[in-house]
Every structure is written in structure tokens, then in C-alpha cells.
Amino acid sequence: MALKKFRPSATTVLAAAVLALLPVLATAQYRWLGQISENERGRLQRALTNAMSGVARDLDTEVAGVVGQLDVKGLVSGAAPRTAAPASQAVSEVLYLQRPAAHDASLPLTRCDVRAWSCSAAEWPAEFTGISQEIAQAVRTGSSHDVERLSRIVRTAKGGHPVIVLPLSEGSGYHDRRREDADDREAHDHGNGNGVSGVALVLLDDQWLRNELAPRIVERYFGPSADSDFRVAIVNRHTPGDVVYVDRNASVDDIVSSPEGRQELFALRAGIGRDRWSRKEGEGDEWVMVARHRSGSLQQAVDAVRRRNLLISSGILSLMGIAVGLIAVTTRRARRLAEQQIEFV
Predict the structure, then answer these.
(1) Which stretches of the chain are DSSP H helices?
(2) Is 87 helix (H, G, I), strand (E, B) or coil?
(3) CA dihedral 133, 139, 141, 145 (to 10 degrees)
């Protein structure tokens, strides 16, 4: 009897085609997952940068808002406080120097307790030794340019308080100064040297900054610590061992040693003769915020997601291959059995 010529069925041909396409699908999926991983890394980096910038902006905005509500002239003159401003919680005290009528006249220092709303004459505290002479000289000249150069957050010698050097314009306190025309202001400053009436050193409450303001703003942008993708720490720029804030689920040394992002904080400066504040990076920065991904690094986090996706996709492709192979084998057996039944009949 002549042997029958074997002709594969349509199911067998389809199964063979699918099995041949599986390596192509696997290669394309590998490249696709790699592109997705790179896009995810970029997204996480942008999210981190935006969150850190938001923390820096809101920190400066809230501090500037608190200081802007402080009626320094009213405090020094003994006028009744207008409102129970939040400055009473954020500001521990104010040191005030008024520009004298004569250039060589003495400069009595007035020390004010914001919470008690009272002032008295005082000597320069020891921690201000390093900046007292520079401030006094700027007050004597009365030049807005000299005082604006000091208008930044500074750190006292003992590191006890962050201090805002706040210039006060003629005739009013900082809180209600009106905008002046730039040309008139320049002529005013250079023509008679009467740009400022005095300088107030606003001593911010360190505990309020560390225990209330900084944690609240960090959580606003990074979310609760348990749910956040990043571990955040804030340290003193000049004394890295001075930890302002750290995520309770992380070690500050781990974050500082290899951060994924870095942001200068407290870079605000008070505008002279205009109702605004500005940021100048690298000038008067008080704190530094650093952050890293909770997986160790952004690359590690992305690699972990990529490995997981590869395992899942490889498993799916493997199951597809096995299923197609089983279908082909089952179909061939069924066909052979049918042929045997026909031959028997």
C-alpha cells in the first residue's frame, strides 16, 4: 500500500507561525519595556524636581508672609497691635536700629519681644558680633543699596536663630510700603541718601521652623512618609550635622550620602522700597534639602519595575507558546484518531 503524503493542517501551520513570531514579540517587548523604564525615570526625576522647588517656594512665601504682617514701626513705637498676626508664633524677637539724624551719631539698639509686644533699649547680643558693625554702617549711610545687600536670611554666630535683615523705608514699616517709581527711587537714594529709616533684625523662631513649618510643607508636596516615593532630609547648609528634618523611615546619612535631588532653601531677600521678595540661589541660603528614592535610587527603582515587567511579559509569552504547542499536538492527535476510525470503517 502506498504511503500517504503528510500534509499539515491549517491549525498546525497557524501554531507554527505563532511559535515563530514569539521571539520577535519577545524582542520588541524587551525594547518597549526599556523605553517605558526610561520614560518612568524621567517622570520620577521631574516629579522630584517639581516637589523640591515647591517646598522651597512655599517655605519662602510663608516666611515672607509672616514677616510682612509684622508691624515693626508699631512695635517699636508702642502702638497697640492691629491683629493677632501669626508672626507672634514665628518670630521670637526683633532688634531695631534707627538711622540717626547725624552720620556720626550713636546707634542705640532696641530689643522687642513680639509675644509680649514690648521693647526696651539693649546692647548687641554676643552672637551678632560678626554682623553688627556691617549693619550699623549700612544704617548710618541710609543707602538702600547698602541695606538691600544685607537683606537676606543670615545665621548668627552661635547658630541660635535664622535672622532676616529687614530694611524699613522712610515714613512707614515694611508691611505697608508702597511701590515707588524706579527712577524716583534711584534719585532719592543717590541724591540725599535717605533711602531707609532703619533696619530690623527679625529673629525667626527656630522651633516653629523645624517642628511646624518645614514638616508641613514637605508633606504637602511629598505626601505622608509611609506613602511617599522619596525619603527627604533637610540639613543646615553650614553645619551638615544639624538636622532640621528627616523622614522617620530613613537615615539622614543614607539620604545625604547619595541624594537624587538637592535644593537650596531660605534664599529669599526682602525688596527695598517695594512690596516684594525675591529668591537668589546661593546667597544667604540657610538650609539644604536632599532626597532620594525609597528604593535606594531612581535607577534601582526603575530597574526593579523593569525586571518585574519582564518577568510578567516573559511568563505570558511562555504560556502562549505552551498553549499553542498543546493545541497543535492535540489537533494532530485528534486528526490521527479520525483517520484511524475511517480506515477501520
Answers:
(1) 10-68, 72-77, 87-90, 129-141, 144-150, 182-192, 206-208, 214-222, 252-257, 298-344
(2) helix
(3) 100
Q: What is the pLDDT of residue 192?
A: 41
How does strand 261-265 pair with strand 287-293? antiparallel
What grid cell was written down for 173? 514699616
Phi, then psi, of 119 in degrees rounded to 5: -135, 155
Q: How confident is the model at residue 311 (pLDDT cuts 50, 70, 90)?
A: confident
Kindly report, residue by residue over 104-161, the tens digit of the pLDDT: 677 889 999 888 888 999 988 887 777 788 788 878 877 666 666 665 555 554 455 6
Residues 183-198: tens digit of each pLDDT: 334 434 443 444 678 8
Q: Residue 238 and residue 288: Cα distance in Å, rounded?
A: 9
Closest CA to 159 of 256, 268, 236, 44: 236
Residues 6+ apart with CB under 8 A from 152: 164, 165, 268, 269, 270, 280, 283, 284
- The helix (run of H) or strand (run of E) holding residue 118 is strand 118-122
Give the CA angle between residues 243, 246, 248 to the nearest 5°: 135
Residue 284: which region, alpha, beta or left (left: phi > 0; alpha: psi -120 to 50)? left
Q: Are 198 and 97 in contact (CB under 8 A)?
A: yes
CA distance 85 to 152: 22
